[in-house]
Specification:
The chain is built from 18 helices and 8 strands. The chain is an alpha+beta fold. Strands 4-3-2-1-5-6-7-8 form an 8-stranded antiparallel β-sheet. Helix 1 runs antiparallel to helix 6 (about 130-155), helix 2 packs antiparallel against helix 14 (about 325-355) and helix 14 (about 325-355) runs antiparallel to helix 15 (about 360-385).
């Protein structure tokens, strides 16, 4: 490839990354953490009774109790079954959700405000949903562009694939790390970019496909991808969800039911659908459909449908890594950290090369490490106060920006230290609120990684502070040694 093409690719890579660095970083950071969004839901209410499985009778009792206490009109009813991700029973409608114990008795209302804020930060940047999703989807396309232009711009991509330089001023090592992360995880980054772009651009894709293959009939495309509702005789009475659920052991003994939905509650077209995770399949779930009386009427056909239908139903698991339990989640987390660090290192490389004023660098560090602090303190606020967590998070981010402008000492190691201390405050507050439940599996599976982050951030911040002090000392020593030498030279010359 000629030098002009490589230079143009490098210029595009640089300036696109610089101008969108903050948004890209927030989307990547929140997405990396949101890989464990189901674990965060357990973490928020760690004292809830957990179970491996549940009987149809218990499901029926829990729903009957829920309906007796929640009489508001609703178009849907839901039952979330215990799974390895969330081993809890939840019954809900369009308005409220409650946990139930292993005997079908209702417990407290489900409250996962922080998790919802975190996921929405990733999906919409906490903006109005329609506009936010379009923006984030565009950022997904930008990630693909950055991956491609980064590979094209690299002059010795094969030779430098595993080259990591050490020493010097650290910039070479940072450049190598940026290039290696970008190359090693390029397939993952493309998958994340493409699937992320899909979620917000599905409507546009729908119009294009309809125009090309279905004479503009969007409903025809929807029916191809999302199986139409069954046409049934008018249904009356209470949906027999227990009877429907009991049949899953016979209909799909190898599949794990995830949740149940009663569609169009109280309407003539009412029917029951149970979504079950298919082993060794990437699709989110297969749908098993029953009439109001609990009679099986067929499957939705997602598991063995046309390739386009399977692809669409695989988008969620491809994007969030929810297809091989904790193994795939941890893999996605590590690769997500690599993508996030690409945003961080790319911007730091640009700042160092351009000799920008210190304020620009401090603002970037307040964005990177200050966002970690803001997320941690938002989780703390959720434990003690009611109100908008979106407002709390963005107020904290604005506060970080404001104090960074006013306080020149808030450098990279200080912000890194602040982020670690903020997470430590979160752990202390969590222990104070949840007490003995802090030692539960639901708590420890996230608290232990958080504690590791606290130790690492404090250690790393201390290392950077010492390195900066040593550099200052060396500069002062060099300056003091050069002064007598200059004077001596003057005497010799005289």
């Amino acid at each position: 490839m000629d030098k002009i093409t490589k230079q143009n690719a490098l210029n595009a890579h640089t300036w696109v990354g610089v101008f969108l660095s903050v948004l890209l970083f927030l989307v990547c950071l929140s997405g990396t953490v949101a890989v464990f969004h189901l674990e965060f839901e357990r973490w928020e209410q760690p004292h809830i009774e957990e179970m491996e499985n549940v009987s149809p009778e218990v499901v029926e009792k829990a729903m009957d109790t829920f309906l007796a206490q929640n009489t508001q009109e609703s178009h849907h009813l839901y039952v979330v079954f215990p799974t390895s991700d969330i081993p809890r029973l939840v019954v809900e409608n369009d308005h409220a959700a409650y946990f139930a114990d292993s005997e079908g008795n209702l417990l407290e209302q489900e409250s996962v405000s922080f998790t919802e804020m975190l996921v929405n930060l990733h999906l919409y940047l906490n903006l109005p949903q329609s506009w936010g999703m379009i923006l984030v989807s565009a950022l997904g396309a930008i990630i693909c562009t950055l991956v491609v232009t980064g590979i094209i711009a690299h002059k010795r991509i094969a030779k430098d694939a595993f080259k990591l330089r050490r020493g010097g001023n650290g910039q070479q090592a940072q450049i190598d790390l940026h290039n290696r992360f970008g190359l090693w995880a390029a397939p993952f980054h493309l998958v994340i970019g493409i699937t992320g772009a899909y979620f917000g651009m599905a409507g546009i894709i729908l119009v294009v496909v309809a125009s090309l293959n279905y004479d503009g009939d969007r409903d025809a495309v929807i029916q191809k991808i999302f199986t139409p509702d069954p046409v049934l005789a008018p249904q009356e009475g209470k949906p027999a969800i227990g009877r429907a659920f009991a049949q899953m052991e016979t209909l799909a003994p190898e599949k794990s039911p995830i949740f149940l939905t009663v569609h169009e509650v109280g309407e003539p077209e009412q029917f029951i659908e149970i979504y079950a995770k298919a082993p060794n399949r990437m699709i989110y779930a297969e749908g098993y459909r029953f009439d109001t009386a609990g009679n099986f009427i067929g499957v939705a056909g997602y598991e063995f449908g046309e390739w386009g239908k399977q692809l669409v139903w695989a988008m969620y698991r491809l994007h969030f890594g929810d297809f091989a339990g904790l193994t795939s989640k941890w893999l996605y987390f590590v690769l997500g950290v690599m993508l996030t660090m690409l945003c961080v290192s790319g911007m730091e490389i640009w700042l160092s090369k351009k000799a920008h004023p210190p304020l620009a660098s401090r603002l970037w560090y307040s964005t990177v490490w200050g966002s970690v602090s803001a997320l941690a303190l938002t989780a703390v606020a959720d434990m003690f106060f009611t109100g908008s967590l979106i407002a709390v998070f963005w107020c904290l981010m604005l506060f970080n920006t404001g104090i960074t402008v006013g306080v020149k000492s808030l450098t990279k190691p200080i912000w890194l230290l602040i982020s670690g201390l903020s997470v430590m405050v979160l752990l202390i507050a969590y222990a104070a609120v949840h007490q003995s439940a802090t030692l539960s599996v639901a708590s420890l599976q996230l608290n232990i990684p958080m504690a590791v982050y606290v130790v690492w951030s404090v250690y790393r911040a201390n290392t950077l502070i010492k390195r900066a002090k040593n550099a200052e000392t060396q500069i002062e020593t060099d300056a003091s040694n050069s002064a007598p030498q200059s004077a001596q030279e003057k005497r010799v010359n005289a």
